[in-house]
Each structure stands twice: as structure tokens, then as C-alpha cells.
Predict the structure.
Amino acid sequence: MDVLLSGQLLFAALITGALYALIALGLNLVYGTMRLLNVAHGDLVMIGAYVAFWGLTLFGLSPVVGLVLAAAAGALLGWLTYLGLFRRLLASPQLMRRLEGNSLLLFFGISVILQNLASLAFTASARGYQFMDQVYRFGDVALTGNRIFVLVVAVAICAAVYLLLRFHVFGLAIKALIERRDAALIVGVDIDRVQLAAICLGFAIAAIAGVLVSTTEQISPFMGFPFTISAFVVIILGGLGNISAGLVAGLLLGVLEVYGVALTSAAYRSVLIYGVFIAILLVRPQGLLGRGSVVR
Amino acid sequence: MIRSLALPILFGLAGLVLPFTGSSYLIGVGFALCCSIALVQSWTVLSAMTGYVSLGHAVFYGLGAYVVALSWGALPMPVGLLLAGGVAGVFALLVGMPVLRVRGPYFVILTFGLAELVKYLVIILESELGSFSRLMFGAPDLGVLYAIAFALAAIATAGALLIRRSRLGRGLLALRENEEAAETVGVPVVRLKLVAFALSAVIPGVVGGLAAMRTTYFEPMQAFDPTVSFTIVTMAVVGGSDDARGPLLGAAFFTILSEVLWARLPQVYMVVLGLLLILFVLFIPRGLAGIFAGRPGKAA
């Protein structure tokens, strides 16, 4: 019982939760604006992790620089896939009829390609590096520097994106698109540009999250999938396309996972995550924190 | 009608001739092909006919494998296989009620999540039972397994053909186009969906059991591998799922591709699979069968 009340566990939950919130934020932007189910989202996390790893190993660049490089790589990938694939998908009425299903298949294709190209290029073996691994003490809580780094960066980026969506004109356009696409078009939102921006931003956020992951964990070409799943659980928990609820849901999942595992054992982690996932889908598909009903 | 039967008959004849080659390599490939055909045809009964796209058919496959592994040595092999199909079907009936209320993208990810949940539950169960993988000694030889797989593929193909022409099939197509409208004119949508779900689960259950016999062991991570679900969907997309020809073409295409590439260059195979999936979704939505029908890209 002492363990459950310790600040150590609380911080572990906060760090996991902030990371989940960040990863899910990117997924939610892409789903919200375009109704695309990005099952390759975790693979973008993987790409970000490799950018940081190679940046440090080959050029001695700090992961702080890696954050910028990864964001650029993510945005570039978003730009390429939007122009190459999704603009076409979104423009064809016939493909739009089953947009979510089709987007899921396309992203699955992208996911398989990214994983296996990474595996061909970097080999399948796990890699890691040391970064800020000195321990800091706050009262009875001991945290390594890299975990504080994860927490600070994740919270800062979530906050920045939230403020962007809330106050900046471009963010408002993204929000308009999420809420009512047709109306956004009528009032003069340049849908094509906003969609491109949303996908670049969403991919960049995932890649940044990858850099954060790489500072604390080993990385491999197939590391992305569990992040895809967690991100989907989070955005469903918050309600698909509901950005601010998604941030709260990310923290909630972090708490659920860390305390759930502490109460049972690590073997139950997946059962816990999928159990929550299924329960929410069955009972409240509009999301635990969502308002009203959604078009299903 | 004749045109749509030509290809299944061709496949059937080839399948009957195959054992006489006596080549265990070819029979092995034939076994894989028949299993894939059986899986994809079963999948279309639910997903192509009702529009409820399942990304979790691995759960039926895995359950079938688990039933056969558990009953191995205790029950005669044919009984174990029938039980595998039965358990998969009953499981579909049980979870179908709540699951089939959920629609569209939610249904897709729900089926996926369900399959993963069952996988991890089986892993926990197995570790509680103190077993991490089960070996099956004395599995039937390849010729027998091939014969069963061929029969399953034939049953699944005939079933898919018949269901499309039946009252059930028409009801399913009606609810795919517009569930509310179908219900209004008296189609019992809830019952039909459930029947389709159960029907599409039985044969994958048997195939899973058969596959476990072929590898002679059961391991949950492998039996419930989500790749099984993804491969089924990919085959259906590339082959086309508007009629019974698509799954035949899709399964044949990927079986050959995997023979050529998988053993030597597994990663290249996966990259090619991803590229093909993207290509077909965007440019050839009716699949290989659509090209055969001479109207590629036109919606049904």
C-alpha cells in the first residue's frame, strides 16, 4: 500500500501519461481534421527515435537538437504522404465513401513499409544511448534527468499545441475543420492547406515523442506498434477528434497503466490496456470524456 | 453465372491434380494457399457482404489452434477440428451481440482490440497453467492436412457463392447499403449480422487448428498473431471482394509472392506487400477480380 501512495509512482504515472497525451495529440489532429485512421502513428515515433539515435551516434548531436531534426523529418513525411496519397484519397468521392477503412489500409501499408525499411537499413537489433542519466532527488522522489526531460518537453509541446489551437488563426482553422468541415469550407478556410498543416504537425509531434522515448528506452524498428495502440486507446477514451479531452485521457491512461501494473503485475499490462479500450468502445464510443453522440 | 464459376472450377481442378505431383514442396504451397482461400472467403461473408470490416479474424484462427492444442491426444483429430470450428462460432455468437452494435471505424478497431485482448488472456492462462508452448506429437502427414485444407477452401468458396445468392446474402447486402432502411423494410438486421459473424468465424477456427497441426506446436503470440488478420484483409483488398473470385486471386497472388520473396527477403516481401496495398486501395479498388471483369476501378 505504501508503494501506491508514493510520489515515485505518481511521477511515473505523470511521465507515462504526458508521453501518451503527446503521442495521442498527433493522432487526434490527423483523425480530427481528415478522418484518417493513422495506424502508422507509432512508426513515426520509431522514426523520431532513430533520428535522435543517429544524430547523437554519428554527429554527436544532443537529443535536444534531435527534437528539431525529428520534428522536421516527421513533417517531411507528413508532407510527402499527404501530397502523394491522402490528397488523392480525400478528393475522390468514391474512396471517400469508405474513408476511414481505406485510410486504415493505406496507413497499414505505410506502417509495414516504414518498419521493414528501418529493419533493412538499421537491422532489427535494439539500440540505445545514454542521455542525462544522473539521478535527481526531490524529497522522497528520485528521478533520472532523462525522465524529467521527457516530462518537461511533453508538457511544453502539449501546452504549445493547445494554445495554438485555442488562439492562433491557423489553429482555429484546424479546430473549425475538426468541428464542421463543410461549414469551414463555406467560411473560407483553405481546407487543403489546413489539412497539410495538420498532418505535418501530427507527424512531427509523433516524431518528437520518439526522441523522448529514445532517451529512456531501447529502440528498434518494430517498437512503434504498442505506441499506436496506446494512442488509439487515448483518443477513443477522450472521444475521436476531441483535442483537449485527449490530453486529459492521455494522463488518465498513464495513471491507469502505472497504477494497474503496480497493483497486479507487468503481465497484465496489455490486458488492462485492451480491456479499457474495448469497454470504452462498447459502452461509450463517443468517448468517456466526449459530449453528446457522434456519427458512428 | 458461368463466368463467375469458371475460376473457382479451375482452382478446384488444379487443387485435385496437385497431390499427384507427389512434390511435398508443391503440396505445402497448396496447403498454405487453401488455408488462405478458406480464411479470406470466410472473412468476406461478414466484411464484404455487410461492410463490417473485421480486423480481428486472428482471434478465431487462434482459438481454433488453441482448442486443437488443448484437445490434442484427448480427442480424435477430426473431433478436435470440428470442436475448433464450433468454439470459434460460439465465441462469435457470444461477442457478436455487443460488438456488432458498433459501426464503421469503431468496429474495425474494436475487432482488432478484441483479438489482442483474447491473445493476452490466453498468454496469462497458459502461464497460470504452467505451459509456454504446446508441442503436438503424431500430427497427420502433409497429404492428409492438404486434403482437409482443400475441402475447407472448397466449402468456404461454395458457401460464399451460395450465401450471396441466398435470402441471407440479399439481406446482408441491404444492410450494408443502409442499415436503417433495411431494418425499416423488415430485414432482421441484428439476427443477420450475427449469423454472418458466426458463419465467418467457423472455418477460420478450423483453419487455425489445421495450421497448428502443420507446425506441430501452439504458441499464443504466433497463433493470435495480428498479421493473420492484416493478411486476410490485404488479400481481400488486392484480390477484390465483390464476388467469390477475388479471394481466390488475392490468396493465390500472395501465396506465390510469399514463396518467391518471404524465405529469402522477408523484409522486402513486407515492403512489397505494403506498396501493393497502397496501390490497390488508391487505384484499383475492385482488386484483381475487377481487372478480370474488365471494369477496373469502377465501383459496384
